[in-house]
Amino acid sequence: MNRPTNLIETIEQIVPNLKKAERRVAESVLQDIEGTTRISIKAFSAQTGVSEPTIMRFARRVGCDGFSDFKLRLAQDFAVGRMYIEAERRVQAGDTDSTARHVYQSATDALATAFAGLDEKTLTGAASIIAKADKVACLGVGGSSAIMAQEMENRLFRFGLSVTSSADPYKQRMLAAIADRNDAFLIFSVTGKPRSLVDATEIAAGRGANVIAITQPQSPLAAHATTLLPLSVPGDEVHFNFPNRTRYGQMLVIDCLSALVGALRQPASARKLHRIRTVLLALHGHTEAQPIGD
């Protein structure tokens, strides 16, 4: 059996094996998790109809020092997993039309917000740094940011740039350690907090490399970057089954940067794209307006 990952899961798993009084405590907690985090042991005793010593025994059974510690851990776990816990306790609206409308609206709002936050001078400067770099490293961790780093590599290599991407925390620091003054780093992060990215930024900047961060302003990552492309897309109502919409803003920045870099590296970039198109014809033949390796 898999070990439970948090207090709420622990309680759910042990309910069938509890004696009557402690089972009453567990069931009462699971029925109103949030309410339990705010109640006194005296009031909880009256509510459940069990003695305070029984409540204390239950708290210790699940690994807590006492009822106060139990409430604290319960509150922490509930805060972290609230959208998932609530999803299990109610039927989710899953019809195609409302889902498609939600995704569409979320994407358009995120794009509008990200576009409004773009600074033309900073964007142009970042593109110029990338276009002139000897080597480019694209870094990100986690979900969308790691994928965006890969996507940036995918956009830039076709212009003839020496570019790599990494989501490995060790390799990120290693790439930063061997950075030179004419290298460029593109760091993607929704929060601007991952330790490996902040460390890599500090190390690379310390070696004189240009570090462009696409992240939240006022974040640790933003503070250490040499160029900041601020990306602050407010979260809408959180749903467990909808992805974070910030990635639409990240994609806007990626496409703007790659288009500018391609233009700045003319005519070499056009020649390289033409060579790519030529070798791809052997795979699919000639098609009008075929994407170049997408």
TrEMBL record:
Domain of life: Bacteria
Domain HTH rpiR-type as annotated: residue spans: 5-81
Domain SIS as annotated: residue spans: 126-267
Recorded coiled-coil stretches: none
Pfam families: HTH_6, SIS
Keyword Phosphoprotein attributed: no
Keyword annotations: DNA-binding, Transcription, Transcription regulation
Protein's UniProt keywords contain Transcription: yes
Protein name as catalogued: MurR/RpiR family transcriptional regulator
Native source species: Microvirga terricola
